[in-house]
Write a structure and sequence with these properties.
By secondary structure, this protein is mainly alpha-helical. It has a single domain (50-410), classed as 3'5'-cyclic nucleotide phosphodiesterase, catalytic domain (Catalytic domain of cyclic nucleotide phosphodiesterase 4b2b, Orthogonal Bundle), CATH 1.10.1300.10. It contains 19 helices and no strands. Helix 1 packs antiparallel against helix 3 (33-47), helix 9 crosses helix 16 (299-314) and helix 18 (361-383) runs antiparallel to helix 19. The radius of gyration is 22 Å and the shape is globular.
Length: 411
């Protein structure tokens, strides 16, 4: 398959890149240090603003060498909306539990386990971070909550309870093995793990665009904006209230907890992927300019980190070792092609990368990895070098899918 790199800059990113070049000019510091300082302040202010972070649809359409499936994929996942977030700041330390070391592994395979085993492992991860103690709930209530969550996931090939477990376990790996947990508070971590478990509750097996195009009641309810994500959040919050997870939180803790859940799950809306990548690039630029050396403990940085972790975990299958990554790619391919067939059946606008007559699992996987995954995980490595193994797996998977795609073309 012929691969073309695509230019994906938002207007804001073009401006900030130009500012960065000016600031990096050594002669500016010598001739006008005051101006340089003002430009640095402007860049920092721009980086803290969440508007205009996404590439335009016109920019995608004008890429002459872009293959039609990639263009269809990128158009699906381009949008300029991004939510603003605020949380408070405090720190907590946690106990260790040697019995779940195997759950800290990148590329864990959940498919060899029963639902009961997955539920048990989820409970272990939550107890590792002392969730019952923090929320003042019993272990039994936690177990009942997880069982109820399991009942709200359906038997789709991809958006199912295995995916919910996989995302939660991947978050657990980010927090422990990759050390992201040290930048977050105790309440942050509990909110993040619960968001991972609940981020696709009652998923119908169709994406937001399908729900909008079919005037689904959920699309009507949420005015076509992050339809599924809002639905998942609403169900999650109802469950948390039903099981009294929030009963013993102070008002400010409950408010912070809700904000964290909303912003983190909304960030899994793939139409917000490019704005998130652009924000990530801005953090990398700031780091290179020595404006900050790591993710700080400010409420905005902590919330941004939570959004990054959940989004990364949600699309992490492409960056897992080949055997497990291939299984996930085949599963999402099957689910996507079912939606494509339904679009044809209903006579609504069809999505090229979901049309099995126009593409294959190999082509879709390759396009997603090249145009969506690699730019994101590359920037993650720039900011968090300890995640390089994830990028290595992704790049190896790109080579393997490219070989498979080439063989399909020659048949």
């Amino acid at each position: 398959m012929l691969i073309h790199k695509v230019i994906m800059e938002s207007p804001l990113e073009s401006i900030t890149n130009s500012l960065s070049e000016l600031i990096s000019d050594q002669s500016l510091n010598a001739t006008n240090p005051t101006l340089k300082k003002e430009l640095e302040n402007i860049l920092i202010q721009i980086s803290s603003n969440n508007d205009l972070y996404g590439p335009s649809a016109n920019q995608i359409s004008n890429q002459v060498d872009l293959n039609p499936i990639a263009r269809s994929l990128l158009k699906t996942y381009s949008n300029n909306d991004l939510m603003v977030h605020k949380t408070s700041n405090h720190c907590t330390l946690f106990n260790l539990n040697k019995e779940i070391e195997h759950l800290k592994v990148w590329g864990y395979d959940p498919f060899n386990h029963s639902d009961e085993q997955l539920i048990s492992m989820l409970q272990s991860m939550f107890m590792y971070y002392q969730m019952p103690e923090k929320l003042k709930i019993s272990d039994i209530k936690l177990n009942q909550f997880i069982i109820h969550v399991r009942q709200l996931y359906h038997s789709h090939s991809y958006h199912n309870f295995y995916h919910a477990f996989d995302v939660t376990q991947t978050i657990f790996t980010y927090l422990t093995t990759f050390g992201f947990g040290k930048h977050l508070t105790h309440l942050d971590i509990i909110a993040l793990l619960l968001s991972g478990l609940c981020h696709d509750l009652n998923h119908p097996g169709y994406n937001n665009a399908f729900l909008v195009n079919t005037f689904d009641p959920l699309a009507i309810q949420y005015n076509d904006k992050s339809v599924l994500e809002n639905h998942h959040i609403q169900l999650m919050w109802t469950l948390l209230d039903q099981f009294q997870f929030l009963k013993n939180l102070k008002w400010d803790e409950k408010k912070e907890f809700r904000t964290s859940i909303i912003n983190s799950i909304i960030a899994t809306d793939m139409s917000l992927h490019f704005p998130l990548v652009t924000k990530l690039k801005q953090k990398v630029t700031e780091q290179k300019m020595n404006q900050f050396k790591y993710i700080n403990s400010t409420s905005q940085d902590r919330q941004f980190l939570m959004e990054l972790i959940l989004h990364a975990a949600d699309i992490s299958n492409i960056a897992k070792p080949w055997d497990i990554s291939k299984l996930w790619c085949e599963r999402i391919g099957h689910e996507s092609f079912l939606q494509g067939k339904k679009e044809v059946e209903l006579g609504i606008p069809t999505t090229d990368w979901m049309d099995e007559s126009k593409t294959t699992v190999a082509k879709n996987s390759l396009n997603f990895m090249i145009y969506i995954g690699e730019p994101f995980f590359s920037q993650m490595v720039e900011l968090f070098p300890q995640t390089k193994s994830c990028l290595d797996h992704l790049q190896e998977n790109i080579r393997t899918w490219n070989n498979i795609s080439n063989l399909e073309t020659t048949k």
